[in-house]
Amino acid sequence: MKMDGVEITGVKVINIIEENAAAIENMVNRAIKEIREKDLVLMDVQTTADNIFLILGKRHT
Fold this sequence. Notes:
3-stranded antiparallel beta sheet, single chain
């Protein structure tokens, strides 16, 4: 995915420790819905054993 014209605006962290796959899926889907409602772009996803980091951006007009 090309990211020209997109500026990083924030990070959303989802704690996944002790969660099952279905719960993690629901949390990520909810986060993606919130990101779209705020007219932001999901630029990248990073993970650790305990967290998912969603890197957020905004398109330049």
